[in-house]
Amino acid sequence: MAEAPQKLRGSHAPQDPRDFPDGFLWGAATAAYQIEGSPLADGAGESTWHRFAHTPGRTANGETGDLACDHYRRAPEDVGLMARLGLGAYRFSIAWGRVLPEGRGAINAAGLGFYDRLVDLLLSRGITPLVTLYHWDLPAALDDRGGWCNPDIAHWFAEYATVMFRALGDRVPMWVTLNEPWVVTDAGYLCGVHAPGHRSVHEAPRAAHHLLRAHAEAVRAFRAGGHPGQIGLVVNLEPKDPASDDPADIEATARSDAYMNRQYLDPVFHGVTPPELPDMFGGAWPVFPDRELEEIRERVDFLGVNYYTRGVMRHDETNPPVRASHVPQVQALRTETGWEVHPESLLRVLRWVRERYGPVPIYVTENGAAFRDPPSVIDGRVDDPLRVDYFRTHLRAVRQARREGIDLRGYFAWSLLDNYEWAAGYAMRFGLVHVDYATQARTPKSSAYAYRVIRETGGAALDLPLGELLRAAEELRARD
Ligand code: IFM
Predict the structure, then answer these.
(1) Whether the Cβ atoms of residue 225 and residue 217 lie closer than 8 Å to each other
(2) Mean pLDDT of successive 10-residue segments in the chain (480 residues)?
(3) How far apart are CA 346 and CA 463, in angstroms?
(4) How far apart, in whole angstroms, are the C-alpha atoms of residue 57 and residue 277?
(5) Would you tell me the crossing angle of helices 466-479 and 385-403 to the nearest 10 degrees?
(6) Is 236 helix (H, G, I), strand (E, B) or coil?
(7) Is 366 in the pocket of ligand 1 (CB under 6 A)?
């Protein structure tokens, strides 16, 4: 792909030296089950997501990750695409069961080899790999033994992590233990809408606790192995606002904040549980040994923040245990997933992390939007102005955070490719790159070009009116 026009790069030098320095990581993110396809190839073990998606009635139209973006067979082409898009970094996840089909024990050399080659391919194109060890596809063999509710899983996870550190630790500079543990427990163990599909007020807090123990044990294994890179955790954060000044709504907002935003970070950074949680869960809340809370408080090298929207909350007795519900902001711009577009809240959340948890280095490890794209690619074009504007406004928030001195070191667009949006199937398209699922053709959208213009102008193109940014993106596309 051609570079941004010289006149644009020259005339828009960064206005503030703090904006986006050299070394700021500009990337895009994906996850294994969402893009790879071939879930059982070459000796891979079945995952909970494979099972869940193949259970009738669990996902939209019964869609599965069997083919997805066929990335397992097209990785070289996809790395070529990233290089063509000028990406500096790529965040991807490992399918645990490709490497350890039973979750533990014998290593599957073919599965490990796939990731080994992927890392080498990325490095050969100058793209920094950021590896997530767990993005929701638990080996089914471990689920059969209780999955995240079995206390032994902390050890199983650290064993698996150690296999990966030994195999790739010489080349991977950044590791993430878990992606969005809140989603794992809320969607997977409380609401039953994600794998493994349980609905249990008793299981959810146990799964949350053992996820955090697993995270901490993997961090300790990483440090004990003396690996050269950095390791952190990725959480999804969502500022919560009350729907009204009714005290009941204000309390519901505090509970929602404790449940979603503080449940994972307070233990990791402060070694404590938010006091609202035992109250909310009542008799279902287990008593965890103090020693385990202390163990969870293991220093991380960085925190990854996934940000998509805020939540406006009202009191709702029919929705236990949090007793709160989202109030849809009907007059706001919302994405196809129904999420309000609210870039100000990205800045709020970054300020909140710094204030509450101190000066930890932060990466925005996911940010993006599903919008309805044109139904087909015409003349090689997929115009997605709403997504361009989403990135433009959210990257302004990122720039502002840097100007305020927040130690924000990178940004990863979600997602590189349109992909399998879990239980929502393939209808939700988040990609910078359009995927034609019938032919597997990849076509970069306007947003892929606009993202490049923004990067190559050191962020200065964020100040362009949307129409001008779209024109600059189109100019790049036409020369590509
Ligand atoms: O697709 C997901 C991803 O797997 C985790 N974070 C949110 C994305 C959009 O829903």
Answers:
(1) no
(2) 60 74 97 99 98 98 98 98 98 99 98 99 98 99 98 98 98 99 98 98 98 98 98 98 98 98 98 97 96 97 99 98 97 97 98 98 99 93 98 98 98 98 98 98 98 97 98 96
(3) 18
(4) 32
(5) 110
(6) strand
(7) yes
238 Cβ below 6 A of ligand 1: no
Q: How far is the CA of 190 from the centre of ligand 1 (A)?
A: 18
Q: List, as one string, the DSSP characters of 348-407.
A: HHHHHHHHHH-S--EEEEE--------SS-BTTB---HHHHHHHHHHHHHHHHHHHTT--
Q: What is the pLDDT of residue 397?
A: 98
Q: Which pair of structure tokens corresponds to residue 330?
A: 């009907």
Q: Is 159 a catalytic residue?
A: no
Strand 311-315, strand 128-134: pairing: unpaired
Q: Is ligand 1 within 6 A of the CB of residue 421?
A: yes
- pLDDT reported for residue 17: 82
- Give the residue carrying structure tokens 């929602």: 256
- Quote the tokens at residue 276: 């609202």
> From the CA of 421, how far away is ligand 1's center (Å)?
7
What type of residue is 306?
N
- What integer pLDDT is reported at residue 214 of this predicted model? 99
Helices 466-479 and 446-456: crossing angle in degrees, nearest 10, is: 100
Catalytic site includes residue 180: yes
pLDDT at 4: 63
User: Does the pTM of the predicted model rise above 0.90?
Assistant: yes
* Residue 235, strand partner residues: 305
User: Which atom of ligand 1 is the closest one to the Cα of 306?
Assistant: 6
Q: Which of 63, 203, 238, 366 is catalytic?
A: 366
Q: How far apart are CA 442 and CA 432, in angstroms?
A: 10
Spacing, Cα 414 to ligand 1 middle (Å): 8
